[in-house]
Every structure is written in structure tokens, then in C-alpha cells.
Design brief:
By secondary structure, the protein is mainly alpha-helical. The chain has helices spanning 13-27, 78-91, 93-101, 114-124, 129-141, 152-156, 160-164, 170-185, 190-195, 198-205, 213-222, 235-245, 253-259, 267-289; strands spanning 36-38, 41-44, 51-54, 58-60. A hairpin with a 6-residue loop joins strand 2 (41-44) and strand 3 (51-54). Helix 12 packs across helix 14 (267-289).
Length: 290
């Protein structure tokens, strides 16, 4: 529709008001089109009787390309993983070869609440896996109900001294208290986190002491099962992209975005295969050196 606007002074106030209302209505953005919605359940592991956290419905986007349906539902759905593998094999021949050469498909099975997952991420930071697991197990043992009892209020009941006794550093104790404090004050909640966009998650979670962008990326992939996360700061993924495309140097964030653009909307799965590619290359080098 074309609209001709005649400029000039309107002396009739009624006409002027009517024109202003008409222009305001025309400038208002239209409502987004309806889209298909799917819901995926995320189970919360408890020692006795597991409960469930339900993911907020996520939009599904469909495109017609060789009968390929692209969905942005969480990766905890096997059908989503299957669709993502087909999409990546079609869109990137080199990545497709890596996928074909790896017999076991990715599985995203985290069953913990967002709060517990973030707590665990903080405790595991900059520690070898074995040492981190030992401290995490001691931490969980502080709570009578185990993992299901690790809640903001109960965590805040333990002082930094209490946490240091089980091997948690003073700095990490302050990180844990800051996270729990933001939950208690209402700045964060599990429901809010499940609803947030990827950009909102990065903005809100990096306001917590000790949580950076890399931690948020890992949280989105392995705890929330978001399908389109590219951890541009992860060394393993960067090395994988370097080897995949035969680069001379490790790619920076901008180059990573450009090279992996073809993986959308399944960059999380593409990243998973970069870790597998690096592991495979390490194994091959070890065999050759023997």
C-alpha cells in the first residue's frame, strides 16, 4: 500500500488528531506470524524420586530444502539431534565427513536444575576432573537431601569457612554465595533462565561473580541443550575448526563466526564434533609416535 503524506499546517484540530492516529497505527509493527511450538521435558535427578522441570516451549522453524526440516527445539530430543546431523552433513561437506567417521552420535542428557548446573560449573572451574568431582561430592554431602536439596537458601546457610573445609577456595565460595544471592533476590530463577534468549542468558549470567561467557556457553549447550551455540572462546572448538578447514593459525571469534555460519541453527552440534575431531587427532598422533 502506498501512502501520500501532504505536509503543511492543519488548522482543523479534529482533522489533525485523526491524521496523527492514522499515522501512528501505520507505523506500529505488525504481530509476528504464528509458529509451531514444541515442549521438551527436562528431568531433575533426585536420590529417591525424580521430579521434572519442563522446558518453556521453543519455536520451531521449518524450511523446505531437500525435504529437510530444521527445528530449534532442545537437543535433549533425539529427533532434533537426528535432524541436526542431516543438516550439518548437507551444509558442510568437511564436517559431514567427520560426522560419518564418528560412530556414536552426540547425546545431551543433563538432568539437573539450572541452579545446580551453575553451582557445579563454578566448583569445576580450573580443576582437573578427578579433583573437581571429589570436591563436588563433598559439597553435595553437606545437604541432607543430596543434589535435590542444593537450593539458594540452603547454600547461603553455609559460610565461606564451612565451604573451605571441604576444599572450596575462598574465591569460589564468594562466587557461590553471589549466585545464590541473585536467586534469593529474584534477579535470577530457574524459570527465568529457561525462558531467556541466548543473548539474555549471556548478559544476565555473566553478572554473577566467577561466571564468564565460556561458562555460559557450556551451560547453554550441556545443561539447557540449546542447539545453536558457538563457543568462540573454547580452545578445543577453535583447534577443531583450524584442523577441519586446514587453517595455519587458530581462528579468532570473528573468523569462527564466519566459518561456522553454515552450521546454523545447529552450531552446538558442530562444536561437539570439533571436540571429537581433536580427540581423534590426538589418538592418531599417539599411535603414530609408538
Amino acid at each position: 500500500m502506498s501512502l501520500t503524506i501532504i505536509t503543511g499546517q492543519l488548522t482543523n484540530p479534529v482533522v489533525a488528531m485523526s491524521l496523527r492516529k492514522t499515522l501512528t497505527a501505520l507505523n506500529r509493527p505488525s504481530s509476528p506470524p504464528d509458529s509451531s511450538i514444541s515442549a521438551v521435558n527436562l528431568e531433575v535427578t533426585e536420590p529417591s524420586r525424580p521430579s521434572k522441570i519442563t522446558f518453556r516451549p521453543r519455536k520451531i522453524r521449518k524450511v523446505s530444502s531437500d525435504d529437510l526440516t530444521i527445528t530449534t527445539s532442545p537437543l535433549s530430543s533425539k529427533s532434533t539431534v537426528d535432524i541436526s546431523l542431516r543438516h550439518l552433513q548437507i551444509s558442510d561437506e568437511l564436517l559431514g565427513a567427520v560426522i560419518s567417521g564418528h560412530n556414536t552420535p552426540p547425546v545431551f542428557e543433563s538432568t539437573t536444575t539450572p541452579f545446580l548446573s551453575l553451582t557445579r560449573s563454578i566448583l569445576y572451574q580450573q580443576l582437573a576432573t578427578k579433583a573437581a568431582k571429589c570436591i563436588y561430592d563433598r559439597f553435595v554431602s553437606l545437604f541432607p537431601g543430596g543434589e535435590s536439596a542444593v537450593l539458594p537458601d540452603s547454600l547461603l546457610s553455609f559460610s565461606a569457612v564451612d565451604l573451605r573445609k571441604i576444599g572450596v577456595s575462598g574465591r569460589k565460595a564468594s562466587y557461590l554465595h553471589d549466585l545464590a544471592g541473585k536467586y534469593k533476590s529474584g534477579v535470577l530463577s530457574d524459570d527465568m533462565i529457561l525462558e531467556m534468549s541466548d543473548e539474555e542468558l549471556i548478559d544476565r549470567l555473566t553478572s554473577v561473580k566467577g561466571i564468564g561467557v565460556w561458562t555460559v556457553h557450556m551451560f547453554m549447550i550441556f545443561s539447557l541443550h540449546r542447539p545453536d551455540v558457538l563457543p568462540v572462546g573454547d580452545l578445543g572448538v577453535r583447534k577443531g575448526v583450524k584442523d577441519l578447514y586446514g587453517l595455519k593459525e587458530l581462528p579468532g571469534p570473528l573468523q569462527m563466526e564466519q566459518l561456522c555460519e553454515k552450521w546454523r541453527p545447529y552450531r552446538s552440534v558442530g562444536s561437539w564434533y570439533m571436540w571429537r575431531l581433536i580427540e581423534s587427532n590426538k589418538t592418531s598422533k599417539t599411535k603414530l609416535s609408538k
